Amino acid sequence: MSRIAIISSFAEEVQCAHAIEELRAAQVTDFKSFSPIPSHRIEHAIGRTKSPVRWIVLAGGISGVLTGLAITIGTTYEWNLNAGGKPLLSWPPFIVICFELMILLGGIFGFFGVLGLSGVPTTESQPGYNGRFGEDRFGIVIRCDETEAERLESLMKESGAEEVEREDEAQHS
Amino acid sequence: MAAAPKINAEPTFRDVDRSVLRVMEPAGLAYWLWIAFCFTLVAIAGALWTRQIYSGLGVTGLRQPVMWAVYITNFVFWVGIAHSGTLISAILFVFRTKWRTAVYRAAETMTIFAVATAGLFPLVHLGRVWFFYWLLPYPNQRSLQPDFRSPLVWDAFAVSTYFTISLLFWTMGLIPDIANARESATGWRKTFYSVLAMGWQGTDRQWRHYSMAYLLMAGMATPLVLSVHSVVSWDFAMAQLPGWHSTIFAPYFVAGAIFSGVAMVITLLIPMRRLLGIEDLLTEWHFDNLAKVVLLTSLVVSYSYITESFMSWYSGDPIEQMMFHMRYFGPWGYMFWIMVLCNCLIPLLLFSPRLRVNLTALWIISLFVNVGMWLERFVIIAGSLRVNFEPSQWGTYHPSITEIMITVGSFAWFVGLFSLFCRFLPIISMTELKEGIRWLRKALRMDRARAA
Amino acid sequence: MSSGLQSVRHARASRKPQPVESVAGARMQTVGVAMIVLGIIAFVLALTSGRAAIAWEAYLVNLLFFLGVAQGAVVASASFYLTQAKWGGSTVYRLGEAFAPFLWVGFFLFFGLYFGRTLIFPWVTHPIAQKAAWLNVPFLFTRDAFALGVMAAASFAFIRVSRGEEARAWTIATDDIQLPPHSIRVLAPLVAILFAVVYTLIAFDLVMSLAPVWRSTLFGWYFFAGAFWSALCLLALTAAVLRGRLGEDNLFTNPVVLHDCGKMVFAFSVFWIYLMFAQYIVIWYGDLPVETFFIVQRVHHMPWSPLSVACLVLIWVIPFVVLMSVRTKKSPIILGTVSALGLVGIWLERYVLVVPSLSLDAIPFGPTQFLITIGFLGAFLICSVPGLNRVAQAATSGEPVGDDEE
């Protein structure tokens, strides 16, 4: 039996979120949504946990502070110079350096973390992607068995889909 | 007043895309002449810098005791200009401010180019620029290391962190927009945008990580922006020099930075919206709010001037008082009073709601602020140096043609880069404007009600 | 659509709201009066038994603290207008204004300092010639009384308009970018600007002048930022307490509101440490004796250094670490505890700013100072009764809040 993809597009964010809720109620899990804007409604409807990227940022921040401590303390001991009668380990200035490095590494980790987690850069196109999903249409692509297609198509139409198309998976593979 | 509407009274996502993407269509001759003009000035500045590197800092007007003057003023000024971008893109994002969406990309782009301009000045000011890397710690056989107790080293870290983080944050915001531009582009632009968009398609998985990371980046950029100008201010405040050594410097410089930066945003956006035909995306509502930020920060800056003056009088310290006396009534006193006029008095006009939406008046006020803030930095930096503890050492300073042309070149470099960006990448964030489209609709409705 | 909040909002609109008329009443007033009586007894006893200096120290510290909290809260309400905040409907505006009556009490208590001037201001008994033009009794009391009077009058003019129907209608009009009514647009910025000016003056006159040689340009800013933060803590604490006392259907049961309160407490705690660090590092680096002694006395000398550390922990470390997560910001118990500790922290900070200038060698805190503090707290509570009832009504009126889709 061949797998197929059902591509539906919606004009309104609300309808798309609603359709996703319907899908989840119908125990369908193998679907993807596309949207031109980050949508809390859709995210809420899909109901995933919070993105782990925050832990990556935290790790970056901590390693930044540690790097800061290492270079300030390390270089002070390597080049042991009394400047202006200040203590050798002068915490106020070191805090400044640690703070900057915390933000720097936190930001870099976060940026590459989000790229890694969301699978970019990539040259592959997601099956069912349509240019209008970047502009003004919200899309849902469901992958299912042929037998279920009829039912899901009508589900999407009922939820307010403007267009529902069917595509054979074989074309993509 | 609002020009004839180019888009629907109730703009849709489509209308937003069309308005923004139209700006990115191939430009005409006038545009390229303008770019050529800007970069000619940059080339002249580059040539003069080359000569300065070859023959030394003697070609500048820097003489004892004024060894920091126009170059360092430019550095502080440009770092300050950068701050408004981060304020609008990050701080106001954290505060969920509605009017920021249309303005933020332009402001953040300004940040990137302003830091890129600012970063050049410490280098320009170096006698032996080829040793600039001595500021950074690296292993070497003589165990020589930079002194982390020196504020100049903090500065190197702060400014480079600021540039990196702003660049990443800006790139992140651009990715979905470029992916959008990719869809309708043709020819080499299609390839260009496809590469830059990195295959972004806006799936739920991508947005999920994106939104979280964007919020976190904004959250980190917020304290960062406070820290950067604070560190810049500490280049001065750490010294015991009267006029420099003052605890208020950090927040006062940050406020001044945002003040000058938002004024610069206004200076650039008012002509830009006309020239690029995006009057319907940048409405009076947006300018009204920008003007309020200018007014607020102007008040903070005035507060700081008054506190500083009061404290020098209250301290009873004769050297401190002499320094301030010279600042007000000395040979450079006129600069101080022009600065007060530009930074404290003229912005008070913005208390008038009518002037805040009168774009011509607003534009002129913003020019005054730009002048005033540049002068403020000069008065603080060079003005405090020329009157030091030993009257026999007092001197003066005249900028040389090298310094003047490099300053002019820095403006040209900044404006030139910004102009290039306008035509090739989306100067208004389509994604965010669509996200907040109902506010845009309301703002347009309000504008039209006012115009009618 | 079935986004969570939306459905809650619909459900709430369909139910008939039953406003709670009163959360604070006779009992709170009785307790308040008893506290005031205790405070007065302790104060009078101390004055008559030769411990007047100790009593005046406590008087000044508490005046600065409670006045700062009450005023900061009004400024919070004004700044909600300035930022066009709609996240808590009219309730958060009432919350900010709830403590305002203490402003007049504080204004009159300020004159009390006149009777303790020789014990409070070192420059009264040992005048400093260069500073006599600024630091002299008639001028100081005239200018500060005038400043506090104008500040209180402006605050009340603002509150009167803010409680009016027009302003209330604006605060509950969701989904709107219209500006608040004209009179608010005049008075809210006025209150905010006056706050910065007046509290800078108060900081310079009533705190900095206690160590007349010392100076710091940032000190005024630092002082009013602390007062503002303590007010935010009080708002968050009140919200957390009222949440449990107003029945099931009140505004504070909406986690978004507590979350926003928590965010403000978090953000301004970070701002406080920023100002504190900005001041510290400049003085540390400059290393001028005329500046450093003030810090050295408080941070490096026993018995004060543990108290300074405690301030840092209560005002910054705890809020920063605990409130970083969303979950803790939404928890009334955690948010309430952190805010209460924050209030203690700011009180302690005022204490550490004031008292070492007057009695460096020992911490004079004992029953006298404790009871005087209790007395001030009693006055503050009595002043808050009508305001808290207004908060309760607003929070249970079922009015729409929020303008975000989430």
How would you describe this structure in keywords?
heterotrimer, B: 452 residues, mainly alpha, 17 helices, C: 406 residues, 0% strand, globular
Would you summarize the structure shown here?
The complex is a heterotrimer of chains A (173), B (452) and C (406). With 452 residues, chain B is mainly α.
Q: What does the model show?
A:
The complex is a heterotrimer of chains A (173), B (452) and C (406). Chain A is α+β, with helices and mostly antiparallel strands. In chain A, 50% of the residues lie in helices and 15% in strands. In chain A, helix 1 packs parallel to helix 2 and helix 3 (53-78) runs antiparallel to helix 4. Chain B is an all-alpha fold. Chain B is 72% helix and 0% strand. Chain B contains 17 helices and no strands. Chain C is mostly helical. Helix content of chain C is 74%, strand content 0%. Chain C has helices spanning 4-14, 26-48, 52-82, 91-97, 102-112, 117-120, 122-125, 137-162, 165-172, 182-207, 219-245, 255-286, 289-300, 305-322, 326-330, 332-358, 367-395. Chains A and B meet through strand 2, helix 2, helix 3 and helix 4 of A and helix 1, helix 6, helix 8 and helix 16 of B.
Q: Which percent range fits the helix content of chain B?
A: over 70%
Largest sheet of chain A: 4 strands, antiparallel
Alpha-carbon distance between the two ends of chain B? 10 Å
Give start-end ranges of low-pLDDT stretches of chain B.
1-5
Uncertain spans of chain A? none
Explain the layout of strands and helices.
The complex is a heterotrimer of chains A (173), B (452) and C (406).
Chain A: E1 3-10, H1 13-25, E2 31-34, H2 40-46, H3 53-78, H4 91-118, E3 138-145, H5 146-158, E4 163-168
Antiparallel strand pairs in A: 1-3, 1-4, 2-3
Helix pairs in contact in A: 1-2, 3-4
Chain B: H1 13-23, H2 29-55, H3 70-94, H4 100-118, H5 120-124, H6 151-184, H7 187-197, H8 204-237, H9 249-275, H10 284-315, H11 318-329, H12 333-345, H13 353-356, H14 359-386, H15 401-424, H16 430-435, H17 437-451
Helix pairs in contact in B: 2-15, 3-4, 3-8, 3-9, 3-14, 4-6, 4-15, 6-7, 6-8, 8-9, 9-10, 9-14, 11-12, 12-14
Chain C: H1 4-14, H2 26-48, H3 52-82, H4 91-97, H5 102-112, H6 117-120, H7 122-125, H8 137-162, H9 165-172, H10 182-207, H11 219-245, H12 255-286, H13 289-300, H14 305-322, H15 326-330, H16 332-358, H17 367-395
Helix pairs in contact in C: 2-3, 2-17, 3-4, 3-5, 3-8, 3-10, 3-11, 3-16, 3-17, 4-17, 5-8, 8-10, 10-11, 11-12, 11-16, 12-14, 13-14, 14-16
